[in-house]
Amino acid sequence: MTTGEKIAKCRKEKGMTQVELAETLNVTRQAVSRWEGDLAFPETDTLMKMSRLFGVSCDYLLNYGEQQPSNEKSETGGNLFFDFKNFYFEYTSKTHIGKLPLVHINIGLGRVAKGFFSVGLVSVGVVSVGPLSLGVLAFGCLCLGLVSIASISAGLIAFGGAAIGFIAFGGLAVGALAIGGCAVGAFSCGGFAYGSIIAVGDVARGGIAVGDSSAEGSVISVLKSDYELMKNAVYAELDKIPKFWSGFTSLMRSLANNFMNT
What we know:
Layout: H1 3-13, H2 18-25, H3 29-36, H4 44-54, H5 58-62, E1 78-83, E2 88-93, E3 96-97, E4 100-101, E5 103-107, E6 112-120, E7 122-129, E8 132-174, E9 177-223, H6 227-238, H7 246-261
Parallel strand pairs: 5-6, 6-7, 7-8, 8-9
Antiparallel strand pairs: 1-2, 2-5, 3-4
Helix pairs in contact: 2-3
């Protein structure tokens, strides 16, 4: 293989475009194209950056026909690259799960971390950590995931300042089961609670509404001060809810009891 072919091969294995490689090395895309077409050779300092980025030796890139030993590992057990000038850090583990590296840390403006475990300003992975993250388990400022924990989060189970999910916990929570300062959902509990089935809160609006200062329910409304007198009537309405929601009705019954005991 020629030097250009090796550069192209390493770039593709890393999942980078010519533009992304050019930005990483602080050169033009045309320069990368010329290297890969064997029309020019990279300068020494650029070659050293590429060797660190790709986790290969400079000799491997320059020597025709030489194959990189399959058991060669860096001291970190993966590919590590750091460019202080461009505020860029990247680590890619040698171990892969399918086409994804087990660990991918990619921190820098405009860069995306993609790995089974991923960390970056923008992060995509099974377990994802970053200001903007997408994953089965996602942590960050703005997140989307099966389980999502963030200032603004969306997921099957969401925790955050603003949370949207089937089960949502947050200052503002929207979901089938919502618990928060302001909660909206089929079952909701919060300072202000709006639930199409059950609402429990200081101010409650819903089918069955249980509130401290205000309660408005289309089926039944109960103020905290009157709760003991109307408990049996509330429970009778809860028992009418389809069994599909039995787990949620049990939880909301418990929340209502706890709310009234505070």
